[in-house]
Amino acid sequence: MSNALFVLAAAYRTVYTVAGGYVTARLAANKPMGHVWTLGVIGLLAAIAGAAATWDKGPEFGPKWYPVALVVLAIPSVWLGGKLAQRAIARK
Q1: What is the C-alpha to C-alpha distance for residues 77 and 87, in angstroms, rounded to an integer?
Q2: Per-residue buried b or exposed e for 52-70, using 16+ beta carbons within 10 Å of the residue's own CB
Q3: Radius of gyration of the chain from Cα atoms?
Q4: Which of 2, 4, 8, 40 is the most buried (most CB within 10 A)?
Q5: Residue 7: how many CB atoms within 10 A of its CB?
């Protein structure tokens, strides 16, 4: 895959992570941001595990910046989704 396709993959994964945070917060019966943080930690741990498992496995796993970007974006993306859900809930 080219770098441009990895950028695209990182972008759509970020969008889905924001959406996941939003849905999690909206479905939470109480403490929506607590649920969002739990989802964020699970995503962060999964991203770290994926980065560690593929770090020096060869070029077929893509450039090094890609798994690093997934680790860095895990928490902020899900947090943003949770905050957007809180705003939507507050407007009602």
Answers
A1: 16
A2: eeeeeeeeebbeeebbebb
A3: 15
A4: 40
A5: 13
